[in-house]
Amino acid sequence: MNLYFKPLLLMLMLSACAGREAAVQPEEVLIQHGKLSLQITNNFHTRVSSTAEGASPLMEAALPSEYLITKKFRAQDFMLDERNDQEFTDEVGKGQRWTLKGSSKNGDSMIEKVMTVKAYDAFPDMLLMQVMYINRSSKTIQVNKWVNHHYKVLPHQDSTLFWSFQGGSTSARKDWIQPLKPGFSQENYMGLSSSDYGGGIPVTNLWRPDVGIAIGHAELQPKLISLPVDIDQDETTASISTEFEYGEPLQLGVGDTLKTIETFVMVHQGDYYNSLATYGNLLRAKGLDFVEPEEAAYESSWCAWGYMRDFTLEEIIGTLPKVKELGIKWVTIDDGFQQAEGDWQVNRQKFPKGDTQMKALVDKIHSYDMKAMLWWAPLAADPGSKLLQEHPDMKLLNADGSPQYITWWDAYYMSPAYKKTIQHTEEVVDLFMNQWGFDGLKMDGQHLNAVPPDYNPAHNLEHPEESVEKLPQFFAQIYENARDIKPNAVIQNCPCGTCMSVFNMPYMNQAVASDPLSSWQIRHKGKTYKALLGKTAYFGDHVELSDERSDFASSFGIGAVLGTKFTWPRENPTVTEDNLLTPEREIIWKKWFGLYHQKMLSKESYLGGLYDIGWELPETHVIQKGDTLHYAFYNQDWEGTVRLKGLQNDQQYRVRDYVKGIDLGVVTGPEAELPLAFKKNLLIEVYPEN
Q1: For residue range 516-553, what is the model confidence (pLDDT) as tens digits?
Q2: For residue 27, what pLDDT band results from cuts at 50, 70 and 90?
Q3: For residue 120, with 0-12 CB atoms within 10 Å meaning exposed, 13-18 middle and 19 or more buried, which class applies?
Q4: Longest Cα separation, the chain
């Protein structure tokens, strides 16, 4: 890392002090770390750029990027008057820290700004930032919002200005990876953005063919920030930022200090994969431990949801022989077994013999040498449930005293930070795993991803946002309780249609595509999870949720666990979907499940940095198993040359379409070109010829 100052004479004087503490009055500061360059002007405006070969400017000029919005003015121009730098070591590792100070006067208001910038040796191309604002006025200042990393990013000169990763969750269940054009806007609020939806991965990434930029927050708990992305209809530059807006203006008293959370900026080349992997590694270094994959989480799955809520025991038991025949190892009993959300005892209309009959069902599944998983919607309790009738204090309350509604389940939220909710949850896990004997849990519902602040006075929280911050601990408790009962339990967290909260990820061992709306979502969600988590079991969800309800290739090519919810030998008459495993479909299902069990690519190394998912065509994913590379290409109608990246220099490779069993010839590394024609997808394996 290097540090530059202007004018040149001052730069030369300070270069002799590198590595030791210094305090000066710089006119301008330029911090370089890896390929990231951060220019800080004398009025505290900033400009980010990349020194990577071939990278064009990211921004035209330095602009206000870290500032306050108060009730009466915007504090964005601060006279830079002091700078201090020193080497340091903390739990993340060795690095260098810069502390920059300045002040801003607006009428009779005076605010001091202290910005700390950290660069870790282990994380080149990334800078972490935290800002303090001190009221040096003689009266209170009302603060509405703070903003970090407000950048205007220059576009690629094309009809598509940028490709983007945006980690927010929306009720529209939008794609996490999107091309951006004029008029685009998305808030990416990390709190509850609608009655059921919220949370996510607090990272925004925009990339062009030459360079990309990512911003986000680096805390280890959920924070109620937004990461908006906006492009005006008549503009081409994209506005991005990390910001926090106070529900009620913050009263910043005389001498008081406002401190932002720790945020970051990084630059990269290629698509978002490597930057998201870097973010995941930073969280690990700071102490957020993601669990190791469970071997059983890679096994294929059948779910009884094909029969939906009105399933019968006879339908489930009657399907088990066909599930066994396909080599599938997991059977999931889905929604409909319970009395109500919150009352998780068995529905006596379906299980007239009660717990004994549920345990007998689990034993029946085990008799086929298969494992049993149970669907569950924790934190949800129906208004008329026995649970809430006996314990109305368990409800999470909004600031106006109303309960927070979960629209999808027609239920109320329970507070994850309340002792009674925690005790109730422990009892439910014991019922499922110990008394009934299930081997895994499918935690389901978009409401799992985030909760609102809790204002229920009965919960005695230190502050309302404690419910938000303690949601991950709630899932940690479930994970630990389940694994104490069944040490090899598989725990899914399936927040339907949302971008799963990264802070909940350490407490599950099977990520899920979570009700994908398309095969494209199955693929890019898989790439996202594999970037953040590294080696992980990623379940592509039921194949019936993919394009044409049968796109096994999308899950297979991304290295996802295969799953299905077929019905057999007949449909449930109340179901409107077409889930019947007809003889024609059975041929397809047998082929793909057979290939899956043969190759088990879900357990192998995903090489997500080789291809740009946005700018390179056809869309390409690569999985390495030993010395063999498995390439998966996707395009509606492709005819042309594909590049085979990742091969060894001068090594000859045999190319084979392993789905159709067709030999495609021999190529030579390190990067071969291969003429191909296909529709929708093509999966090939490339292995050394000798």
Answers
A1: 999 999 999 999 999 999 999 999 999 999 999 999 99
A2: confident
A3: buried
A4: 87
Which H, E and C letters describe 121-184, residue by residue?
A: CCCCCEEEEEEEEEECCCCCEEEEEEEEEEEEECCCCCCCCEEEEECCCCCCCCCCEEEECCCC
pLDDT at 9 over 70: no
Cα–Cα distance between 259 and 276 in angstroms, integer? 26
Statement: residue 245 has pLDDT above 90: yes
3-state secondary structure of 117: strand
A 10 A CB-CB count for 2 gives 10
Instruction: Decide: helix, strand or coil at residue 476.
Output: helix
User: Encoding tokens for residue 295?
Assistant: 């071997």
Residues 6+ apart with CB under 8 A from 289: 506
| Cα–chain center distance at 34 | 26
Q: How confident is the model at residue 26 (pLDDT cuts 50, 70, 90)?
A: low
Whole-angstrom distance, CA of residue 690 vs CA of residue 666: 11
pLDDT at 472 over 60: yes
User: pLDDT by residue (tens digit) across 423-441?
Assistant: 999 999 999 999 999 999 9
Whether 92 and 80 have beta carbons less than 8 Å apart is answered as no
Q: Using alpha carbons, select from 516, 634, 495, 533 the residue that is nearest to residue 291.
A: 533
Q: What is the DSSP track for 631-679?
A: EEEEEEEEEEEEEE-SPPTT-EEEEEETTTTEEEEEEESSSEEEEEEEE
Query: Could you tell me the strand order of the sheet in which 405-406 lies?
Result: 380-381, 411-413, 405-406
pLDDT band of residue 626 (cuts 50, 70, 90) is very high
> In angstroms, rounded to a whole number, what is the distance separating the alpha carbons of residues 639 and 81?
61
β-partners of residue 99 are 84, 116
Quick: pLDDT tens for 206-241: 999 999 999 999 999 999 999 999 999 988 999 999
H or E stretch at 106: strand 94-106
